[in-house]
Structure formats: structure tokens, C-alpha cells
Predict the 3D structure of the following.
Amino acid sequence: MARERLAHLGAPLEGARPGLLLVISGPSGVGKTSIVRDVLARFGGDFSVSATTRRPGPGEVDGRDYLFIDERAFQAMVDSDLFLEHAQVFGRNWYGTPREPVERAIAEGRIVALDIDVQGAEQVRARHPNAFCIFILPPSEQELLRRLRARGREDESAIMRRFAESTREIARAKSGSTYDAFVTNDDLGTATEAVCSLIAGRLARQ
């Protein structure tokens, strides 16, 4: 059962200071994964593992990279309000953030990082207005397209589809009020330091 595979992180600690729900978004190829990994190494905390209806890719491990479930199990979780956010990507596969482990960890005073798209971030903001949301921008659209091609994971038609979706995501993020800050990843080290500085400032204000 998908519900049984969700990690229960223990009962909330009495008197624990509320943690931080950290949302990191940005287009494919912008460096989100590296930034999130470095942030959690510096501050400690948990990375939320998303559930998905897509098949595992090469080297991906169920429960570590994603919770791989079928569409029936995913819909059952939607019907039971077990997701913090969920969305269908490219009109094919569904992705969602299991709600209970995230909210339990926050109640225990930990940082929980979500790597999700703009639509998901909007849903999270509606549920958790105090979430801290950061959007990672590429230096330019041309550089983003170069990075997508450099990954060598997809053919040109798939790359162009992903690029078009990425430009829409950027426009939606900039035009809305979901994100607290935007950081341009021109240099990974500099961008990571900027994100860490923003998080440190937010934690100091809590």
C-alpha cells in the first residue's frame, strides 16, 4: 500500500520550535538538485521524496529517488488528501508531495526541502503561507537551452518541448506572488551561497 510506504518521522516534540518548509523551484537544467543538496548539507534537514506514476529510470531506487506507484494508488492518495501538492507533468505522469511526513518533520523543528514546479509551489503556499519559496533562474534563455542539450538525456524534440515549458514556468513564477526570492545561477557556487544566505536570514527571523 502506498500509504504504508510513507515514512512516519515520530511524534512532534513538545516545545519544539517550528521548522522551515523550503520550496526550491526552477526550470530543468538550472541546477536545483545541486543547490538543494548543498543547502541540506549545510543546514541539515530532510529532502521530501515525491510520489510519481512514471516508471523508474536507470539507477533510480524506489523510496530514495521517488515513491513509484500506479495511477490507482496515486488517485487514492489524492482522494484521501494525502498530498501537500500534486500535478500532472507534460500531460502524462503524475507527481505529488506526501503531506504527512513533511508536516510532521516541520512540527519537529526540522527543515524540509521540496524541489517542485511553480504549480506545486502555488499549492504549497496556499496550504502553508509561511513556506519559504525560492526560484532559481538561468542566466539567459540561450544558456538554459545549452544546458538542456548538454545533459544529453533527450532528443531534440523533447529538449525543445522541455525548453518551451521552462520559459512558461519562468514567466508564471515572475508574474505571481508565490516566491519570496529569485536567484540567478550563473555560477553554481555563488548561487548556492546566495540561497544559503537567504535561508539563514529567514531562520534568524523565525
